Amino acid sequence: MTNPDIVIIGSGIGGATIASGLAGSGASILMLERGEKLPATPHTRDTRAIFVDGHYRPKEMWREAGGTAFNPGNYYYVGGNSKFFGAVLIRYRKEDFSEMEHYGGVSPAWPFSYDEFEPWYSRAEQLFRVRGALGEDPTEPFHSIPYAFGPVPDEPPIARARAELKGLGLHPASLPLGVDIDAWLKDGKTGWDAFPNTGTGKVDAQTGPLAAALADRNIRLETGAHVEYLEASSDARTIAAVHYRQNGTLKKATPKLVVLSAGAVNSAAILLRSPSPNGKGLANRSDQVGRNFMNHNSSAMLAIDPRRRNTSVYQKTLMLNDYYLSDGKGGKPLGNVQLLGKIDGHILRANVKLAPKFALDFMAGHAVDWYLMCEDLPDPESRIMVDGKDIVMQWRRSNMQSLDGLTKVMRENFRACGYPIVLSRPFDKRTPSHQCGTVKMGDDPATSPLDPFCRSFDHRNLFVVDAGFLPNSAAVNPALSIAAQALRVADHIRKTELVA
Ligand SMILES: Cc1cc2nc3c(=O)[nH]c(=O)nc-3n(C[C@H](O)[C@H](O)[C@H](O)COP(=O)(O)OP(=O)(O)OC[C@H]3O[C@@H](n4cnc5c(N)ncnc54)[C@H](O)[C@@H]3O)c2cc1C
């Protein structure tokens, strides 16, 4: 299939979901995925192998603009980063679709409203079989369809944490999760956040939308197919070919339509590497490809009570949005708080090298482990660049005042709940989990590479459908918003491109 109707590059959240949205349309679709299927081995539930030995981390190195090389936690498997995700499938809040003032500047609006987008959020929740509870969270936006399944249950120490936070007058709420907890625990008594999914416990891009898409005989997945660059037609108005390397051989596909879904960093890199008359790559008349790179400002926070063991296995069932729209005193937004998966001594060892293992085991065994997440604002100088085959990341963090504020208020809250020790540590560039913004959508071709349906303003047969399209990072996990937009773009393609 070298001249299918559509080539989709990448089988992560964006690529797999748009494939599922196009299934049954009659279009012949070739999916090109750089990675292979994640094999089930004894490492999949071994925290030492995963977190200390980096068994699943790619060997690739990215560089900072100054030259320092680092190994990013960016995963290349069928299903992409979602194979390792925490399966939090949460909607952006309604306010995230409008301009919002933050301590560090203004978060831009989306080119359409939450109300317009809402039906696709509902469809994405159904596709990923999200479990949750409505009515607990004060920032919850309107849902036209309730969750199909009740929330993953709190374990007893987490039920206690929920009650403690409620006792302070706060509104802890159940995390919306794509997790079938019984199926997950059958393969091992661990959490799922950052663990590879080789069964059906997590509904990730592969076990959810890709499985649905591949039921259509017109959709075919090629693995080990590493796309190197796109080729424009001679008048540059369309993409004429996709060039990829498979088993050491350079190959070429010539579809009618190209959907680029290689993830925010790699999609930008593919476009920037693609030959163009001005040397700025393709889809880049706006000079914004690679720019506006965002990745949440986030910290791990351990609330430790040496007198009480945290016996949770998975832990990750709560969030708190009391500081999402304001700092609680009439000030600007701070961000979202949610549980991490339960950490152990090995996971701590991966981050704190010097402490003895028994001390780390004790600490982890008595901690409730939280994740503080704050909005990173777009900045054209925060950018992904390419240098030959290398990826160069110049991440200009913004809005750190929000993370400082959230850290301070949550430390006070956890102390008030009776945890005498509260430790926190920010995540850094080696964790680009929530990368986004590098190929943003908007109304104006002068300032955005993509239109509101993720179509390139420059090449009408190119769509970019992954975290790159997000115009802002908000302060919630991105996957459900990527999936909802992928379904919306699929509907648009069916209407505008596939009509007989
Ligand atoms: C540990 C971890 C935990 C996370 N937890 C959550 C969470 O709980 N909730 C949430 O919403 N988000 C979470 N995320 C983020 C979430 O996984 C991403 O936002 C999401 O997967 C992004 O979707 P995407 O389509 O942009 O990219 P991806 O899903 O990463 O897909 C990109 C795909 O393109 C492929 N690819 C890349 N380059 C090429 C190439 N040159 N040729 C061919 N194929 C290529 C990749 O192999 C991959 O399959 C987490 C991420 C990590 C790493």
Automatic annotation (TrEMBL):
Cofactor(s) the record lists: FAD
UniProt KW Transport keyword: no
InterPro entries (alphabetical): FAD-dep_OxRdtase, FAD/NAD-bd_sf, GMC_OxRtase_C, P2Ox-like
Keywords (A to Z) from UniProt: FAD, Flavoprotein, Membrane, Oxidoreductase, Transmembrane, Transmembrane helix
Classification via SUPFAM superfamilies: FAD/NAD(P)-binding domain (SSF51905)
GO molecular function terms attached to this record: oxidoreductase activity, acting on CH-OH group of donors
Chain segments annotated as transmembrane: 6-32
Gene3D superfamilies: FAD/NAD(P)-binding domain
Keyword Transmembrane: yes
All residue ranges annotated as the FAD dependent oxidoreductase domain in the record: 5-265
Domain Glucose-methanol-choline oxidoreductase C-terminal as annotated: residue spans: 431-486
UniProt similarity note: Belongs to the GMC oxidoreductase family.
Record-given protein name: GMC family oxidoreductase
